[in-house]
Design a protein that fits this description.
With 392 residues, the protein is of the alpha/beta class. It has helices spanning 3-29, 45-62, 82-94, 107-120, 148-161, 175-190, 209-218, 232-241, 286-298, 305-323, 330-337, 388-391; strands at 32-38, 65-66, 69-77, 100-103, 124-126, 141-143, 166-172, 194-201, 222-226, 250-254, 274-277, 341-344, 347-351, 358-370, 373-385. Strands 7, 8, 9, 10, 11, 12, 13, 14 and 15 form a nine-stranded mixed sheet that branches. A six-stranded mixed sheet has the order 2-3-1-4-5-6, with helices on both faces. The longest helix is centred in the first third of the chain and has 27 residues, at 3-29. The model is unreliable at 18-22 (pLDDT under 50). The structure holds P-hydroxybenzoic acid. P-hydroxybenzoic acid (PHB) binds at residues 106-107, 128-131, 175-176, 228-229, 256.
Amino acid sequence: MDRRHALRTTLTALGVAAALTATAQAQNTTPFKIGFILPMTGQSASTGKQIEAAVKLWQAQNGTTVAGRKVEVILKDDAGVADTTRRIAQEMVVNDKVDVLAGFGLTPLALATAPIATQSKTPMVVTAAATSIITAQSPYIVRTSFTLPQATVPIADWAAKNGIKKVVTFVADYGPGLDAEKFFKSQFQLNGGQVIGEIRSPLRSPDFAPFLQKVADLKPDAVFCFLPSGQGAAFMKQFGERGLDKSGIKLIATGDVTDDDQLNDMGDVALGVVNSHHYSAAHPSATNKKFVQAFEAANKFRPNFMAVAGYDGMHVIYNAIAATKGAGGGDALLAAMKGQIFESPRGPILIDAQTRDIVQDIYIRKVERVNGQLYNVEFDVQKAVKDPAKTK
Ligand code: PHB
C-alpha cells in the first residue's frame, strides 16, 4: 500500500465514522417510541387501567429520557378485540414507527400481533397475556407477565399435600384456561389426586350459575378455578349466592380469581381462599412496599399483577434502551432484553434468554383480612419457576 492509498483509506474510514456518528445523533433526536396496545374499554378494561397507571408511575419515577434519548409512550385502546389489536399494531409500526410494541391484555390479542412483530422485527413485550405458547409465536416476543402452567403447578402441589383428593376444574374456555386445566390435572394426578370433572365457561359474558350447579352436583373436595382478570368478583359473588362456600367444597384458584383489583370488594366469601400467583400487593419486600405506596398515592386503587407486569415491562425496555446507548434497533433491543435479571415488586425475575419468557417465584397465598382490607397473604413459595410447559 503506498502512502496516498493509505491516507485515502484512513480518510474514507474517518468519513464513514463521522457519517455514522451523525446518523446516530440524528436518530437520537427522534423519540424512542413504545406503542402500548391495551383494552381500555370492554370486559378487560381493568387490565388496561392497571397497566396504564403502572407505565405512568414508571415514567414519573424514572424520567422520560434514557441514554440521551427521549422516550415517548403511545397508548391505544383495542377494546379487547383481536382485529383491532392487529390493525393498531400495523399502524403503530408503519405510521408511528414505534421501536417497541407492548401490552396485550388477552391471549388472542397477543397471537394476532405476533406476525407483525416478526415481519417488522419489532420487539413485542407482552405485559398481560399468559398462555404458554405466546412466546413461541415470534422470536421478537418477550414476556413480563407469567404463564398459566407456571402459576398452576404450585397450587396443584399444595392441594395434593393438604388433604384434597378429588377436584373439579373450572376454567375460562380459551388458551390460558386450557393451560390451567391441563397443568392442574397432570400435576395433581402425579401427586395422587383425581380430577372428577372438567368444566369450561365462555370467555365473553359468562353466567357462572349453571357451571356452579354442576360443581355442586359432583361434590368434589375442592374446585380449582382459573378466570381472567376482571371476572373474579362476579364468580365469587355467585359462588357465595349458591352457598358453595358453606357446602364444604373448598375453592382453590390461580391468583387471577382473587385479583387485587377486585379482591377488597369481594367480601367474606373470599376469606380463606388458597391460591397461587406471582404477585400480591401484600408481598412483604421493601421494593414492593415502595411500589404500592407510590401507586396508591397516584391512583385511587391498588396495583394488581397486571400493573406489576406493565411496570416491569417498562423496566425491561428502559434497560434495553440504555444497553443500546439509545440507538435502539429491533435485533439489538431484543438481544438486550434477553437475560435481564432484576428485583421486581413481585420478587426477583429473569427473562430467560432461550425462551424469552419470565422466570419468577410463585407464591401460595391465602385471602385474609389485614387492617380491615382483604389481601392475598403469602405463606409459601416455589422459587425461580420456569414455565413448566417449556421444560417438558
Ligand atoms: C390471557 O388472555 O392470556 C389472560 C388474561 C387475563 C389473565 C390471565 C390470562 O388474568
